[in-house]
Amino acid sequence: MEWLDFSTDNCSVQRTVGLVGEKWSLLILRDAVNGIRRFDHFRRHVGLSEAVLADRLRRLVAAGILETAPYRDPGNRTRHEYRLTPKGWDLWPVVVALMQWGDKHTADPGGPSVTIRHTGCGAPVRLSVVCGEGHDALTPRDVTAAPGPSALRHSPRREA
Amino acid sequence: MEWLDFSTDNCSVQRTVGLVGEKWSLLILRDAVNGIRRFDHFRRHVGLSEAVLADRLRRLVAAGILETAPYRDPGNRTRHEYRLTPKGWDLWPVVVALMQWGDKHTADPGGPSVTIRHTGCGAPVRLSVVCGEGHDALTPRDVTAAPGPSALRHSPRREA
After folding, report:
1. In this predicted structure, what is the pLDDT of residue B160?
2. Rounded distance, CA B26 to CA A14, Å?
3. How far apart are alpha carbons B118 and A139 in whole angstroms?
4. Nearby residues of B44 by Cβ (< 8 Å), 6 or more positions away
5. Closest Cα of chain B to A154: distance in Å?
6. Chain B residue with minimal CA distance to A42?
7. How many angstroms separate the CA atoms of A63 and A36, rounded?
């Protein structure tokens, strides 16, 4: 596939980036998959302004990635917390992929700040690219990208 | 792990997001893994201004994700193209994770615009979270996050 000849208008990476490809949105997702649900907890833990947090939460709710649910602490009025939807949980591999790269290339000398293990056997987990025939740990050299059913030609054709 | 009690200062997700967690950087990476190398090709295909592209390329080179290499077309002066380093190729799963989510949740009715197959057997590929003992297709429910060797307490302790 000559990628340059294809339009990015309906690129799945681009559409996903348009919804979550932004610093605060990605950090909110990181906190959400780690169990954070309340506005004030996001704000203090992620460390961003109320206005930016409110905006990013609104966008993630609009995208169907988070949904709100009421809760009420004793003596307080009812508030809303933010929970990942199934569509939101589908972004978990994105967070794991960012973490895996950071663990390898940016961690402190002592090692990562968080470990993720398979609860059933205790072994650490990693992301792997696998194929439908069961071959795993595929690298970019092992795969071939091809135009899919909705591929669009890039227009105008590149000049050089 | 009570994530709220831990500092995000040395979080691997956060550090990675600080380097590539931005719309244009992620789209440049998408194009790079698809073989784009030249400034003008990035500019026309990704569709961003020269100034923003130059800035993002500079940051990606500074982070060791891209490296420059000279090339010369007949009759032209020597220019530089941008190639992924091994550290940059390690971001491939991030791009695949974004694509996989987009294919499922944002693709046109006809299907994705790009397909990736295992060259050896032709089967489509997907990202899977696997563990060191060989269990695969792990979901967020199958894993446990725990403080790693460099975990830092969050301070000040949350108020509510």
Report:
1. 40
2. 9
3. 9
4. A158
5. 8
6. B4
7. 19
CB-closest option in B46, B124, B139 to A131: B124
A116 φ/ψ sector (left φ>0, alpha ψ -120 to 50, else beta): beta
Contact criterion met (CB below 8 Å) for A117 and A123: yes
Residue type, A152: L
What ipTM did this prediction achieve?
0.94
Question: What's the CA gap between A91 and B102, in Å, rounded?
Answer: 10
The burial of A86, by beta-carbon neighbours within 10 Å (0-12 exposed, 13-18 middle, 19 or more buried), is given as exposed
Q: What mean pLDDT is predicted for residues A102-127?
A: 95
Convert the pLDDT of each residue in A63-73 to its tens digit.
999 999 999 99
Q: Mean per-residue pLDDT for A104-117?
A: 94
Sign of dihedral through CA atoms A41, A47, A52, A58?
A: negative
Whether A24 and A52 have beta carbons less than 8 Å apart is answered as yes
Amino acid of residue A79: R
| Token reading at A65 | 């990635």
| CA A3 – CA A146 distance, rounded (Å) | 9
| Nearest chain A CA: its distance from B152 CA (Å) | 7
- CA B148 to CA B33: how far, in whole Å? 31
Instruction: Give residue-wise pLDDT tens across range B90-120.
Output: 999 999 999 999 999 999 999 999 999 999 9
Residue of A42, A73, A92, A114 to mutate, testing the B interface (most B Cβ within 10 Å of its Cβ): A114
Look up the pTM and report it: 0.94
Q: What is the pLDDT of residues B34-83, one digit of tens each?
A: 999 999 999 999 999 999 999 999 999 999 999 999 999 999 999 999 99
Residue A92's H or E segment, with its range, is: helix A92-105
CA-CA distance, A10 to B127, in Å (whole number)? 21
